[in-house]
What we know:
Blueprint: E1 11-12, E2 15-23, E3 27-33, E4 39-45, H1 47-50, H2 53-67, E5 77-81, E6 88-92, H3 99-106, H4 111-130, E7 133-134, E8 143-146, E9 149-152, E10 159-160, H5 181-184, H6 191-207, H7 217-226, H8 239-245, H9 256-263, H10 275-288, H11 308-317, H12 319-323, H13 326-335, E11 348-355, H14 362-380, E12 388-395, H15 400-411, E13 416-420, E14 426-427, H16 429-437, E15 441-444, E16 449-450, E17 460-462, H17 471-480, E18 486-492, H18 496-505, E19 515-521, H19 529-537, E20 542-546, H20 550-562, E21 568-572, H21 578-584, E22 592-595, H22 607-617, H23 625-639, H24 652-657, E23 661-662, E24 667-668, E25 683-688, E26 691-697
Parallel strand pairs: 11-12, 11-13, 13-15, 14-16, 15-17, 18-19, 18-20, 20-21, 21-22
Antiparallel strand pairs: 1-2, 2-3, 3-4, 4-6, 5-6, 7-10, 8-9, 22-25, 23-24, 25-26
Amino acid sequence: MRPLTSDDPRTIGAYRTLVRLGAGGMGVVYLARTSGGSLAAVKVIHAEHATDPGFRARFRREAEAAARITGPWVVPVTGADTEAPEPWLATAFVPGPSLAEVVGTRGPLPADTVRALGSRLAEALLAVHGAGLLHRDVKPGNVLLALDGPRLIDFGIARHEGATALTATDAVIGTPGYLAPEQAVAGPLGPGCDVFSLGCVLVYAATGRRPLGTGTPAGVLFRTVHEEPDLHGVPAVLLPLVTACLAKDPADRPGTGEIARTLAGSPADWEVPGLAATVAARSAAALALPDPEPTPATGVPEPPRPTRRRLLAAGAAGAVALAGGGTAAWVAATRRGGTGKPPAPLPAYRVALHADLTGAGRSVGLAHQRGALLAIDAHNSRTDKTFTLTLRTEDDAGDATRALGAADRITADSRVLAVIGPTAQVIDGKVATHYEKARLAQVVVAAGSTTVAGAGPGSLCVLRPSDPALAIGLISYLARVRPTDHVVIIEDRADAQSSWAIRDHLPRAPVDGVRYTTETVAATARTFAPAARAAVGAGAGAVVYAGSSAARGARCAKDLAAAGFTGTGMSLGPVLAPAFLRDAGKAAEGWVFGEAYTDPTALPAAKAFTAAHRERFGSAPGTWAAEAYDAVGLIARAGRTTSAVDAPRDGVAGRILSTEYRGITRRLSFYSRHQVKPQTGIFLHRVDGGRARFLGLHTSV
């Protein structure tokens, strides 16, 4: 740790800098503290690098990629601004030393510790690869040692598998001595390159030597491609796996899951000599650091000294935007003895709503619109706002052709920060791709799935768990409220994909002592009576309708009641609709549903929102209105750090995906596949007296 210099910023976004952790040709890493006292490592890139559009695009990709990776052995991203004059990325602070430092000063680690190291790093890489990404620079310097295990850091060169944009075909990215042969020759890459690097790291940890030697980068790269690694001194228990990891052909290397399983041991295996004392000393030193002293004149932290790049940008784009908004800049100038002139107008941006307002799904679209309007009113009433918002609405009437036209009109509006929607149950992949090409953040509130392949475009931000994931809520209910030893899943093949996904998810997190059996109903069947009789005959204490049709779900409920079923009926997602309540009648009583939406009238945090909705629209909020309200709040939070006056939308998706936001419905934070963490987004509803009654978050019922 080194003291801050007079040129170092005292604040970076929401962080107050404390000391320097390191500096190099690309930028500076600071130890910083949030207003809540949490410590973070904040990497700030030099302005001269940020002027390169290619570099900025790559840094934007780095932030978005790192925000999608979670797990116990990776360091989480806590904040980022990829569009700042000097872009930055913040991660949680780990007070432990690097593997390179420990082995370089104390020598090789014990064999059991190396085995635990390999197992946990393999789990970290499994999370990276599960997000469709590659790390590409696994080395001892990028492994920090904490008291409970290692932490993999620095995803600055992570990228999508198969991606070639922004990387020259003859470029070698990685660290010689730890990169794979295919990296050395700039060949096609896959997860195997990280497996090879992991093998090199394990050899270093076990022997204190690099398996491919030292010397000039060219010499190390030659040995990587053409010679066998030196594995002398590797413990026999590790040798077969390490040898397989270092195979020249990626197809001959084991997968990360296999490595984790092969090396798995007990937590007691993690024992690094001298680590506890080192961590304790560094933790104490970090926690003892005082906040930067405020300037005597104002009592607020000294702002960053403007670089030449910042001054040029201010001249080109206007100092108001770079200062964070007219009102804030005027107040600050007045306190410093400025002229006291009235504030310049704040930048005006828009949030777009892509919704079905006149088609079959108009009730959901209208709820989105009303919730968004109230959120924009709330944002514009803030005294600390740095820009104003308005709502731009496009109605697609639930038609696929009109949806593409709506996307065209929205993307053509350069003042749009992000788009919410579409509001249909399934997002057309063509629409999602359209927004991706325009680099416009697409915030999905209600849709349960998308036709786009894989994880989806990088601009896609899904604020709800998928319908099959809602099964976690049913499992929680069975464990906490209505214990049973036998659950029958009625798989409705009328929606084969949805029913299979639900059937597949339920047994994955089983309740102790509960067994699951399945009764399948053909897509053409008009009755569920045979399946209902079989469930009752088997003594089922709970029955889950695995399908997506409210009408067929109601038929299932009625047939179960007719068969004498007295247990708990359950289902998910779109089944809980007016058609289910209407058609099932008394047979719907007591049915429990896992859903991704709340009832804001039952939430203390949404009391003011509910009152405002009643006052403005004359009714209680509809389904998804509160979630749309939170979507606007999340977009506004992400947009507060924008400095791109001419292209404000750039990087908003990345900031959304790296933001943790406390809304009126729940806490929103993202993990891989562009979705929020499901634990805080699964709610239970139960049919009582002919209507659905909100029970609450599945873990609190």
